[in-house]
Amino acid sequence: MANCQMKGMALRGIVSCVPEREIINERDFPWFDSADIRKITAMVGISSRRFADEHTCTSDLCQAAGAKLLEQLQWDPKTVDGLILVTQTPDYIMPPTSCLLQERLGLPETCASVDVSLGCSAYVYGLWLANSLITAGACHRILLMAGDTPSKYVNPKDRSTALLFGDAGTATALEDASDSRMVASYIMKTDGKGAEQLIVPGGGFRNRFPDEQSQHCVFMDGAHIFDFTRFRIPPLIKELLDYSHNAANAYDLYIFHQANEYLIRFIAAQCGIEISRVPLFLKQFGNTAAASVPLTLALSKLPVTEKDLLQVMFIGFGVGLSWGAVSLNVPANCVLQNFVYHREQARS
Amino acid sequence: MEQTKALEWISDVFAVKGRILSMKDDRMSVAEWDSLGTLLLLSRLQEDHGIIISADHVARIQTVREICELLNGSEAVPKSQ
Q1: Chain A hits for B35, Cβ within 8 Å
Q2: Which residues of A touch B14 (CB under 8 A)?
Q3: What is the pLDDT of residue B17?
């Protein structure tokens, strides 16, 4: 069973970045009926997104976020001994993008670097892996990078998906805090029966060079994904509340994967969560896949409190199907920052 | 729900252009009743009417008449959730 409690990991900061190019649903999709756009926008709550240019990949966004985070924390890159990149849009099939990032961020050869292929549940799984490594003593300081550029796999003519996704990269600093009282509770789940409900069918090794170009683009069975979310996520949250022995109002923030505002509000109501504790940034940034959860926290204003530790629940769900949630203590003084990525500045 | 209001609501859900659907319409006659239309129907049933049915259930609905029956609580398809 993948339910577990782990001690000894501290989240020191999250930096996220988004590309500068803003895509506005009502302006930039003239081939769709404007009434259709308004209805989709009203349902999911997404008005605009950020798209990377053709030269910018997940690694570029994550590198920029990671470099800024190291600088903000004044961490010597040589002290980082673990790098986890969680993404569905690596730069290449091989080599692992995490290896590129290890070199570009100046991390030492003694840094273990690994790619993990997950999307909407990415951040929760990334935290779970990082916590396991730190608690086991395998790593002392880990950079968890979660980023995606879904704009590169979306068919702009597919009205089921064209208006939803945006690009972003994030970096989270995690370190050993075995002398602290920080505890994390995790519940992780998987149901591969839903694998074809959200899929890019071509380009992998099962269908290497598909004849149809659309096979390189994402397909989403929206109705079944909608079902998955509304029927599986409320029980997940209730299970984690029970498992961590917390009431819903014990949490300062609930950071949801940002896929559908209506569903997030529905889930919050089902679980007795005050909506004021649920940051929402779909309107400006859309669904940024792996980056969605850390981007949302980086954009959030932490509640003013005298507590030194905030209680935060992170909830991720989607492609796989894969879903999970973590109850985490987040230091009230952790670094949270978001910035706009400018490719030319990043290169100079 | 009154039939006229139900038909207006269904036409709005599918964003049908230039007409109000009739009881004779079905999936074949409504171009907007595609996979996205199905998702919008699922979502609006829950949001506007508190009717929670599964995606498999909504996929079995073939006609506007069946949607009207669902709105009026008289549809025959068993709820699977």
Answers
A1: 160, 221-223
A2: none
A3: 82
Q: Return the H-helix or E-strand segment holding A25.
A: helix A25-28
Within 8 A of B54 by CB-CB distance, chain A residues are: 227, 231
What does DSSP say about strands A141-148 and A4-7: parallel, antiparallel, or unpaired?
A: unpaired
Give the closest of B15, B38, B42 to A35, CB-based: B15
Q: How near does any CA of chain A get to the CA of B24, in Å?
A: 23
A15: left (phi over 0), alpha (psi -120 to 50) or beta: beta
Q: Domain range holding A209?
A: 1-348
Span A153-205, pLDDT tens digits? 999 999 889 999 999 999 999 999 987 878 999 999 999 999 999 999 999 99
Shortest Cα distance, chain B CAs vs residue A52, angstroms = 26
Condensed to tens digits (0 to 9), the pLDDT of residues A80-123 reads 999 999 999 999 999 999 999 999 999 999 999 999 999 999 99
**Calpha distance B48→A222 (Å, rounded):** 19
Q: ipTM score here?
A: 0.79
Given CA atoms A121, A127, A130, A133 in this order, what sign does their dihedral have? negative
> At residue A339, what is the residue type?
F
CATH (domain of A94): 3.40.47.10
- One-letter identity of residue A228: F
Residue of chain A whose Cα is closest to the Cα of B53: A227
A153/chain B closest Cα distance in angstroms: 19
**Cβ pair A231:B81 closer than 8 A:** yes
What was the pLDDT predicted at A269?
95
Amino acid present at A176: D
Q: At A273, is the pLDDT very low, low, confident or very high (cuts 50, 70, 90)?
A: very high
Count of domains for chain A: 1
